[in-house]
Design brief:
The protein has 11 helices and 17 strands. By secondary structure, the chain is an alpha+beta fold. The two termini are 33 Å apart.
């Protein structure tokens, strides 16, 4: 199915990365061009997972010369994905039961929530090392490396913090256990600890209620770069919190597998696909806003998420400035949520929703969410990946096939 034609005016600085077999909704294309029409927007790139959002498209990167636009980041500040490669291939029938138990209990309930959240808000995953947590947590944090953000975090927002850290959230967020499948680049895969048939944990989540607090405070404003310091400091804190959130989610998945030990962790990396960074592009320093769009710097690992019924792909970035050094963050929706509920309810019985065609299992107590996030509501992943490769934005490294997906 080909790409829909945009309606209304188009912007000359906007580009869409999508082969002819990737369908894009016309409203998403219209939103891309409308956002790119801003006089300060230098470049806009819509990825093959482009789909409509509340006024702005999801699955796009925008570069502004002099301004920062909090609305483009919205309430999911710091959202991204972590990949943890394991030295084990053992996935037993008891894993589902154990995962239900692990994600029903809060492993951090014995700690002071404000003290814990302040530590990770200020220092990201390394803030977890201040607390008596299993060595698996330390191992994941060490693989992620040092915090490379050059902006200190602002004040921690005054929101309800108990029970927030280590939670998945709604929508398309998840914690997943998968198996490494096809390896295309063996050298890059080995460097990331990804070996065929071995297990990997993949978690997609954000900054939870903290991101919403930022959106409530800043989304209506257009900030000149010189006046954006307070927002950027708050955003830095949300990004750090979100990255730590994903580490705790990974620990919970490792515990469900019985593999929460340093010796079982081969490697880990994390990518943030909802944030603003100051980057050099075409010789100019620009404010790059990624809205559901994963970074893909030169030779840096990134991940493009499939659905719970389709594999995800770890890729190696090519640092292509024509694509704002970015790739799609996932397959992208082909149905709006209301449409998915209506159509998928007519196709499947309730007991069928927890199983995918690829053999994966979904743990989710929300029937509405099972309809909305069913694999049928998403585009096929392979044409998306092919589009990214054909545009020379990134190259395939290895696939991860989902075995068990938790959405709670």
């Amino acid at each position: 199915m080909g790409t829909s034609q945009p309606t209304g005016e188009t912007s000359p600085c906007a580009r869409i990365v999508a082969n002819p077999d990737v369908w894009l909704e016309g409203e998403a294309i219209r939103q891309l061009h409308a956002t790119a029409a801003d006089p300060d927007c230098v470049r806009a790139v819509g990825m093959p997972d482009l789909h409509p959002g509340p006024g702005i498209p999801i699955g796009a990167a925008f570069a502004f010369a002099e301004s920062v636009r909090p609305r483009l980041i919205g309430s999911d500040a710091g959202c991204g994905a972590i990949v943890v490669a394991l030295r084990s291939n053992k996935f037993s029938a008891s894993t589902e039961r154990r995962a239900r138990a692990e994600f029903d209990d809060d492993p951090l309930s014995h700690l002071d929530a404000r003290e814990l959240c302040r530590a990770v808000w200020d220092r990201g995953p390394h803030g977890l090392l201040d607390f008596d947590l299993p060595d698996a947590v330390s191992a994941v944090v060490e693989h992620l490396g040092e915090d490379d953000m050059d902006v200190p975090s602002g004040p921690l927002p005054d929101v309800h913090l108990p029970g927030m850290l280590g939670t998945i959230g709604g929508g398309n967020h998840f914690a997943e256990i998968g198996r490494v499948g096809t390896v295309v680049d063996s050298e890059a895969a080995e460097a990331l600890g990804l070996k065929p048939r071995m297990l990997a944990v993949l978690c997609h989540s954000g900054s939870r209620g903290l991101g919403k607090a930022l959106s409530d405070r800043w989304a209506s404003q257009e900030l000149h770069a010189g006046d954006a310091g307070e927002y950027l400091a708050a955003l830095a804190g949300a990004v750090r919190f979100a990255r730590a959130n994903r580490v705790v989610l990974a620990w919970r998945a490792l515990s469900a597998l019985g593999l929460a030990r340093r010796s079982k962790i081969a490697h880990a990396f994390d990518v943030v696909h909802n944030t603003v960074t100051h980057e050099c592009c075409g010789g100019d320093a620009l404010w790059v806003h990624r809205k559901g769009c994963a970074p893909a710097g030169l030779n840096e690992p990134t991940v493009v998420l499939g659905s719970r019924g389709a594999r995800s792909w770890v890729m190696r970035g090519r640092g292509n400035e024509a694509g704002l050094s970015s790739v799609a963050h996932g397959a992208g929706r082909k149905m709006r949520r209301s449409e998915a509920r209506e159509k998928i309810r007519a196709r499947y019985r309730r007991k069928e929703l927890s199983h995918s065609g690829g053999g994966g299992i979904a743990i989710c107590d929300d029937t509405k969410l099972l309809y909305e996030e069913h694999p049928d509501a998403y585009k096929p992943i392979e044409p998306v990946i092919a589009s990214l490769e054909d545009a020379e934005l990134a190259d395939r490294v290895a696939s991860i096939q989902p075995l068990l997906t938790v959405k709670k």
